[in-house]
Design a protein that fits this description.
The protein is an alpha+beta fold and about 90 residues long. The chain has a domain of about 45 residues. Helix content is about 15%, strand content about 20%. The protein has a 4-stranded antiparallel beta sheet, with helices on one face. The longest helix has 14 residues.
Length: about 90
């Protein structure tokens, strides 16, 4: 007698990011020039970038908009532009 085969749902396969090709959709955190985590919206990408920046302040973190192919440097504090620090000459 044959035993019934139990069907276990397989998880959806992960979208594979290739290091030699930039993403084509969504927003991606770029850490020291390397694409890392992909997000559906810019707020989630910025939140993850800020959390990473808080833990490791020496990192250069950018948010890459794949649709427009634009990188934006993540500032140290919300609402602060990347180059607005006071510098004395």
């Amino acid at each position: 007698m044959k035993k019934p085969v139990l069907s276990i749902e397989e998880p959806e396969p992960k979208k594979i990011l290739r290091a030699d090709r930039p993403p084509t959709e969504g927003f991606v955190t770029v850490v020291d020039g390397h694409f890392k985590t992909e997000f559906d919206d810019v707020e989630a990408a910025e939140a993850a970038g800020r959390k990473l920046k808080a833990a490791y302040p020496m990192l250069q973190i950018e948010i890459y908009d794949a649709a427009n192919r634009v990188r934006t440097l993540l500032s140290d504090a919300p609402g602060q532009s990347a180059g607005s620090g006071d510098k004395k000459s």
